[in-house]
Amino acid sequence: MENQTVRFEDLGLSETTLAAVKKMGFEAPSPIQAAFVPLALSGKDVIGQARTGSGKTAAFVLPILERVDAEKGYPQALVLTPTRELSQQIAEEASRLSLKHPLRSVCCVGGRNIRPQITDLKKGAQLVIGTPGRVIDLMQRGEFDTSRLKMVVLDEADRMLDIGFRPDIERILRKCPTERQTLLLSATLPAPVARLAQKYMNDPERVDVSHIGANSQNSITQFYVPVDQDRKFRTLIRVLSQEKPQQVLVFTRTKRGAEEVYRKFSGRLPRIGFIHGDLSQNLREGVLSRFRDGRLRLLIATDVMGRGIDISGISHIVNYDVPMDCDDYVHRIGRTGRLSSTEKIGSAITFVTREEGDQLTNIEIRVNKELARYEIRDFETQRPRRPARHVNDPA
Ligand code: AMP
Predict the structure, then answer these.
(1) Motif Q motif residues (predicted)?
(2) Which residues pair with 306 in a beta bridge?
């Protein structure tokens, strides 16, 4: 959903960048782009609260294109992300947006041969996109010179802190020039992110569009299903046959859980896969690319892996396990109803056991909306609370 009043021409972008944006087929800036780009172009530090799927990659890549000097062959902008997949996705979006710019970028993530990354750095890449571990490795080898960085972007900052990157991020930031511009993007702004921002940013402006846009929760229909743990799988089968989703992402809380659900499916339904952090990088990429091009219709994922997946065909999210915290819920359901999807609407269906009532309430408070109960025809998702008494049972 485009921002009705603002045009890309109003954001202060150069003709070259405007042409690239047009070529991408973007008609109007999304709310985060409209709010974030002019501030970022002014050189200020900015905190943007927006989810993936709201166009936030372009919100920071466009200012990078404008502020980096492509004549100078050394790193001037660094983008840090929590997952390799997200780095890869940003690198692809950056390369599409920089079609008309002489900018060179390099994607520095682990699980891949470091040599080509070093070669690209030596060739004078100006934009470095990567995960903290590999970025530190390259710094320690003396291959990545951070001393002339003008811009540092922390994408999905809340998740980076969640999965224990804080010492790494601080280590990297300490090596960056203090007069740099720092941009921080986060779907939520919990206390640790706010503290990081305070410590490493200079009087940041804050833009919060997490409540509006195409990817707002309004474009997603949200349901819950009260379910017994041992009926979850059968419930999932029922939901799938009732919904007939175009593509569905099923979230489990644990890696083992993801594999278990996958195993239960085997032989029952084709075109199913799973993804979690213990799979090799190659396997992860293979699964994602098969999901992206539609060869897989159902993907079972854990939170970290499911995050940042920008796939337009996802019509349904099923929370097979209720997420541990409400921020995870927001991230999970953000995988559907995305800006890039043709339908721009989606459904999120959350399985909740009797013991998890409080979690459901917390989610409802977080999204400020009461979730509707999902009805399944001719199937009991829960056993009755007391065993049914037979007529002949003694009283
Ligand atoms: P992101 O939130 O950056 O992951 O972007 C989600 C998707 O929306 C990507 O496929 C982008 O190419 C696309 N996108 C970004 N900005 C716009 C826009 N202004 N209009 C239409 N699509 C966009």
Answers:
(1) 6-34
(2) none
Beta bridge mates, 350: 224, 319
Helix axes 132-140, 114-122, angle to 10 degrees: 60
Q: Is 53 in the pocket of ligand 1 (CB under 6 A)?
A: yes
Residue type (1 letter), 97 = L
Ligand 1 contact, 58 CB (< 6 A)? yes
User: Which of the listed residues 6, 30, 307 should we mutate to test ligand 1's pocket, taking the one with most ligand atoms within 8 A of CB?
Assistant: 30
Question: Which atom in ligand 1 lies closest to the alpha carbon of residue 53?
Answer: 2
CA-based Rg of the chain, rounded to a whole angstrom?
A: 22
pTM over the 0.70 mark: no
68, 37, 205: which is closest to 149 by C-alpha? 68
* CB distance 337 to ligand 1 below 6 Å: no
Determine the angle formed by the axes of helices 357-367 and 326-333, rounding to 10 degrees: 60
CATH topology agreement for domains 3-208 and 220-373: yes
For ligand 1, what atom is nearest to the CA of residue 57? 3
For residue 321, pLDDT over 80 is answered with yes
Q: Is the pLDDT of residue 106 over 80?
A: yes
pLDDT at 178: 96
pLDDT in tens, 260-270: 999 999 878 88
156 lines ligand 1 (CB under 6 A): no
Evaluate if residue 341 carries a pLDDT over 60: no
Which pLDDT score, from 0 to 100, does residue 134 have? Answer: 97
Residue 228 has pLDDT above 70, yes or no: yes
Second CATH level (architecture) for the domain 3-208: 3-Layer(aba) Sandwich (3.40)
Architecture per CATH, 220-373: 3-Layer(aba) Sandwich (3.40)
Domain boundaries, the chain: 3-208, 220-373
* The pLDDT of residue 385 is above 70: no
- Three-state secondary structure call for residue 110: coil
Q: Which of 212, 339, 344 to probe ligand 1 with, by most ligand atoms within 8 A of CB?
A: 339
152 CA to centre of ligand 1 in angstroms:
21
